[in-house]
Amino acid sequence: MSDYIGPAPTSPQRTNSMDKSGIVAFGFTCMPISPAECEISEKAGTLAQRYMAPVYTQVGVPIIAAGVAVSLIDQGENDPPPPTLRICRGAVAWATARQIDVLRVVCARPHRWRIKRDLQYAIREAGSDIKFRICNGDIWYWKWFYRGSTLWYTRGPLRWHLRDTILRLMPFRLYRRIAS
Fold first, then answer.
1. 21-179 has which fold?
2. Domain-by-domain residue ranges, the chain?
3. Which of 110, 111, 119, 151 has a C-alpha 20 to 30 A away from that of 35?
4. Rounded to an integer, what distance in angstroms lies between the CA atom of residue 100 and that of residue 94?
């Protein structure tokens, strides 16, 4: 399994003519739509147009690019976002059903390590050979956080790192059970 961390390739062509891409856009701060969600949705829309790819995303990430097919994660509009592992499992099932070979993931930089870990796990769990690449936006690290977020842990870096450290140190068996 390979992954690429950095800007997306600038070529309008697929990286391999045999690869079929899908875009997975992970929300970060939840409703209301924040600068982070705007950055994520803009990047996801651009990649979807570049690779002629469908998008799998959350309710709070408005993909407004013309001609882009969008599948929403099963989540009520006022519900908290599903756990990262559950979204990754859904993304792998979505990609498998569409015969997608490469997932291009758009996410907030602070969320990247967990998405990478959980997506690797979800791919192994499904017995899939899907590859993924993480494509970050160019927004400054501290701008990912939004004081108006409904999620306490995305209102500032200290809050994020407190929660994230707990999730990082948690045994994966327990994390997997919580995220189910």
1. Rossmann fold (3.40.50)
2. 21-179
3. 119
4. 8
